[in-house]
Amino acid sequence: YLALDKIPTWRQHVNNTAPEEEEEHPISLCDKVSLYKGDITILEVDAIVNAANSSLLGGGGVDGCIHRAAGHFLYEECRSLNGCDTGSAKLTCGYDLPAKYVIHTVGPIARGTVGPSQSRDLRSCYETSLRLMEENKLHSVAFPCISTGIYGFPNEPAAVIALRTVRDWLKENTDEVDRVIFCVFLETDYEIYKRKMSDFFSPG
Ligand code: ADP
After folding, report:
1. Is the predicted ipTM greater than 0.95, yes or no?
2. What is the position in ligand 1's atom list of the atom closest to the CA of 189?
3. Could you list the residue ranges forming a coiled coil in this record (predicted)?
4. Is 44 in contact with 99 (CB distance < 8 Å)?
């Protein structure tokens, strides 16, 4: 498991400092976000977000990984939820995961091209997930790259929507949030986020 205090913030990432050797500075948005490459199911945070499908009954990709790691009780709870609309989100317990909760959100199906409705739906996934986190008094959350796998949303526009939506939310809710982790899995997404993060979360 990977505890939150072992995951560097974006400020620490940019300044190449370890989480332990944190200096004094006024808190800014770059202290509230992290870029982490790897498996979302090992993160010991209040909630991980699942890029689910509308049935909420499990599937491939990150959804399959989360269900395998959380165990059968997650499936049972999901079965009681009667699915979820695209762009919306529902909360469950985390069961065998180190994360306390799972926020299941349903991204738009894009198949390589994006129109305004897909962009709106993807933004809504991030917004409704963040709202659920706030309503349930959760303080740390990790997002996978929603819709960019099987659902075919192009990676770079998806990253920009993710970064902008989280940045805009954090501006309004700075004190309530400890950390939002962008959990990328593929090297291509890691490179895109590394390049784009400072456009949205610049230290100083
Ligand atoms: P969608 O159906 O919304 O496109 P996918 O699960 O197919 O969802 O892909 C979403 C992203 O999740 C992709 O970038 C994929 O590489 C990534 N992914 C797959 N497994 C994991 C995992 N264990 N942890 C984090 N991200 C993962």
Report:
1. yes
2. 14
3. none
4. yes
